[in-house]
Amino acid sequence: MQELRNILICTDFSKDATNSLIYAVNLAEQINAHLYILHVKSTADSLLNDDQIEDKFEQIKHDFLFRRTLRISYLIREGDILKEIEAAAREKHIDLIVIGMKGASGKHSMEFGSITAHLIDYPACSILSIPGDCRILTIKQVAVAFDNQNPPDKTELYVLSYISEAFSPKIHIFNVKRQKVTVETAATAQDVFDDIFRYNLHIYYDIDKPNIIGSIRDFIRENNIDLLTVFHRISAQRDPFKRSVSKQLAFSLKLPLLITPIKN
């Protein structure tokens, strides 16, 4: 199975961005991954010169990386934020992009939201969204929402596998029934999860309610979930007017959300 080697986080050095940075640092250290911290000089805000950005990076080292031993690289780029994130992800062979769900205020906040939405719709790799007011760092309870359709290949779940091994959480796998599936399909899905979570206590649930988002929120609250995982099916025939479940959850939840792209 592929290794989780490289994590990317883009920061604008805002207060809200700091929250996701702390989470990314902690995660990279636990998994022993290489963390890339990217700042894009965008025309959407007042540009910092390279010396000022280097000062910001030095402040990050002082505030959050003192006595830490993780591998870390700092990237400075200029241009369109989305394009530069995607380019960095390709060039650095990124396995996981960490996104803070609140950026600066005003125009930049609107742009940040559209960037997040695009990354979710067209994921180059797994996406981890961190709400601006989230204070969760430990991962003791993980929920995996699944609809039992076209079970994912276990090679697509390597990020989730690494997180489960690093933190040893209890795994709650719940099937949100959107339509009936064959016994064979359900069994195949369970085989995949049993293999991925063979070292974790994991439990299966069925949730048969019409409101998918509401069902997921209720489950999170009732089981004190620290991290929710959903699977984003990549389709060439995406409806641009339909907001995906992944996107709805990313913009509404108060806990970290791992979005894992899988093929239809």
Q: Measure the end-to-end span.
A: 20 Å
Mean pLDDT: 82
Q: And the CATH topology of the largest domain?
A: Rossmann fold
- Describe the main β-sheet briefly: 10 strands, mixed
Kindly state the percentage of residues in helix.
25-40%
Q: How many distinct beta strands?
A: 10
The CATH top-level class label of the largest domain: Alpha Beta
Low-confidence stretches: 103-110
Number of helical segments with 4 or more residues: 8
* Spatial strand arrangement across the major sheet: 3-2-1-4-5-10-9-6-7-8
Q: What best-fitting shape do the alpha-carbon axes yield?
A: globular
- List the domain count as a whole number: 2
Indicate the structural class: alpha/beta
CATH architecture of the largest domain: 3-Layer(aba) Sandwich
CATH homology superfamily name of the largest domain:
HUPs
Strand percentage lies at: 15-25%
User: What is the alpha-carbon Rg in Å?
Assistant: 18 Å
